[in-house]
Each structure stands twice: as structure tokens, then as C-alpha cells.
Design goal:
Elements lengths: L8 E5 L2 E10 L4 H7 L4 H7 E11 L8 E9 L10 E5 L2 E6 L6 H10 L16 E5 L13 E5 L5
Antiparallel strand pairs: 1-6, 2-4, 2-5, 3-4, 3-7, 6-8, 7-8
Length: about 160
């Protein structure tokens, strides 16, 4: 197993919105997606809170393996953003902070989705909040070594 989930570091995080370019499918060309965000730089820079970048993974379909991946920035509001951008709410929750060593987003999403870091009160295939990665502005979001992923966990698990 590439994810070390035995005793992960946890932190309370969330209650913010990420807006960016979305892709739905079973594979993600991360470099192309992050490059395409430049087309919306003016919109995102005007609405952005800070300089960090985020990748959000959610809406995983257990049968097909499809998921939605959004590459973007934290924004104050979405009122003046292009309709082509997707906004995702990140709820306040306790997140396990993992540093996976995956070669692709698909591998990472599949493994996280298969882990037992889920809310037992929900369906087996449903995580109770989106999974996200945070990148400081000087880090490359397409480099495996720079991945830091936040996986929602039940508050009483840790």
C-alpha cells in the first residue's frame, strides 16, 4: 500500500470554496489541466484568497471509476467567475493529511476511495467530503514529490 493510513497526521480544515477547471473521467492529464487554468487567470486572480492552488477530487463512481477533478484556487465568491469554471465547496471537517507516492491521480483516487477513511453512516462508496490537495504557490502541482492530500475522516476516528 502506498498510503500510510495507520496513524496519519490529522487537522481541522475546510469551509472554503475552490474554483477552477474541471475534468470528469477515469484519467487526468494533470499538466494540461493546470496549463488550461491560465486561460482563466484574470478571473481567478481577482477572486482568489491567497496564492495557494488546490486540486479537488470528488463524485467518484464506484462502478465506472470515473471521478471529477478540479484544478483551481480558493476564491472568496463565485459571482464574477466565468461560467466555464467549476466551484467546489470544501466543508469544515477533520482531514487525514497524507503524502502519497502515486504516479497518477487515477491511482491515488482509486486507493483513497478503497481505504477505510470513510464515514460509516454513509454508503460504502461515498466519502463524506471531497478529497483535496493543497499546493503553495512555489510548488509544482504535477510533481508526485509535492503531493499533500487531505482525506476526510470521521471526527471520532482520530
Amino acid at each position: 500500500m502506498v498510503l500510510d493510513t495507520d496513524e496519519p497526521e490529522t487537522e481541522r480544515h475546510g469551509d472554503f470554496t475552490v474554483a477552477g477547471v474541471a475534468h470528469r473521467g477515469t484519467d487526468v492529464d494533470e499538466a494540461a489541466l493546470w496549463d488550461s487554468i491560465d486561460d482563466y487567470a484574470d478571473d481567478l486572480n481577482d477572486a482568489a484568497v491567497g496564492t495557494d492552488r488546490y486540486a479537488v477530487m470528488f463524485d467518484v463512481d464506484a462502478d465506472s471509476g470515473e471521478f471529477t477533478y478540479v484544478a483551481g484556487r480558493e476564491v472568496e465568491d463565485t459571482d464574477d467567475l466565468s461560467a466555464e469554471l467549476t466551484a467546489v465547496e470544501i466543508p469544515q471537517a477533520t482531514y487525514a493529511v497524507l503524502r502519497p507516492d502515486h504516479e497518477s491521480v487515477e491511482e491515488m483516487v482509486r486507493e483513497i476511495h478503497a481505504e477505510e477513511l470513510r464515514d460509516d453512516d454513509r454508503d460504502d462508496d461515498e466519502v463524506h467530503a471531497p478529497v483535496f490537495e493543497r499546493y503553495e504557490s512555489d510548488r509544482d502541482p504535477t510533481t508526485v514529490a509535492d503531493r499533500e492530500i487531505y482525506v476526510p475522516v470521521r471526527d471520532d476516528e482520530y
